[in-house]
Amino acid sequence: MACKCDLVSVLGVLLVLIIFHTPIIVFAGEGVPNVALFTFGDSNYDAGNKVFLMTAALKYPPQTLWPYGKSRDDPNGKFSDGYIVPDFIADFMAIPGGVPPALKPDANFSRGASFAVAGGSILGSAVESMTLNQQVVRFRSMKSKWTDDYIEKSLFMIYIGTEDYLNFTKTNPTADASAQQAFVTSVTNQLKNDIGLLYGLRGSKFVVQMLPPLGCLPIVRQDYKTGNECYEPLNELAKQHNAKIGPMLNQFAQTSSGFQFTVFDFYSAVIRRIQRPFNYRFFVANASCCGVGTHNAYGCGMSNVHSKLCEYQRSYFFFDGRHNTEKAQEELAHLLYGADPNVVQPMTIRELITFPTGANMREYWEPNKLSIRPRPSNAPYVGFSAY
Description:
Elements: H1 2-21, E1 37-41, H2 85-92, E2 112-114, H3 132-142, H4 148-153, E3 155-159, H5 162-171, H6 177-200, E4 205-209, H7 218-223, H8 232-255, E5 260-264, H9 266-275, E6 284-288, E7 290-291, E8 308-309, E9 316-318, H10 326-338, E10 344-345, H11 349-354
Parallel strand pairs: 1-2, 1-3, 3-4, 4-5, 6-9
Antiparallel strand pairs: 5-10, 7-8
Helix pairs in contact: 2-10, 3-6, 5-8, 6-8
Pfam family, one: Lipase_GDSL
GO molecular function, one term: lipase activity
InterPro entries: GDSL, GLIP1-5/GLL25, SGNH_hydro_sf, SGNH_plant_lipase-like
């Protein structure tokens, strides 16, 4: 009898060990509704729209040529060595092949489209680009491809504003604080209007990505000759812009029925990786993998520029002077989809997609949330990121 009891006990212990040591695998799209992804913005989100706006004189723009697409051996119009953030988000949402550029003829738009265009801005864009407002107008012209119910359940991602502030700083190098503040107000007011238009077109789930520390982009360090330092006037403009995003979206959610959103603190995510690259498995975060100049920041992929190319792009945070490597893009996408509220708030993309459509939000964006817990100065942290 004792032997039988011991045998049962042993079997019970083995069963418990098997249950708790067997990994639980969650596949892409599992538990997430089958909805669309719509992206708006600039070159960081451009899935290839810029190619369809180029003049015939430039048949093969740089982003369609190697080494762009290097990691996937597929230069397809995206400004990276491989996938960009929306590609990974689409993968997490089980959208096969990602979302196509809206300007691509005869593409399959059943699961959404990318309206983002390189050079896109909020206040004014070049002829061969589109402002955010023009992107919204394009969405309106294609809206009949999806039902209103489907649009309401789908995800709208917006990342734009870099061009506005880079151009402002270049053309107004001596602008005082009041002029800077007035410009930021103009940019964010127009952004608010454009988001309102999308809401009026039945969009209800919005992801807005804050601006990064623009003064730390390799192309900015190179142009302004700051060496290893960032160009702080541009960082300050980015901070002023970012400070207005959360309150603006809170107001939408509190006054517009069914409006839902989340905000990605991109500024803090980037500054952490620039200041402590080794913790995130990067070896170079102040220069580009591809380009020429003091920071390898200019001319990647251009036929008339003999640009340098790093040996191993995954060790770099930036692929060219303004855009991140695929490895960095994947890290950022994971933050958007499932990070802590200190990074993306008031909810993750996954939570936003599954949040009941039409319901009013229960939580809102909160200011002054620290993106990283402060560490005592006498206790340096030298470990690597778990990612």
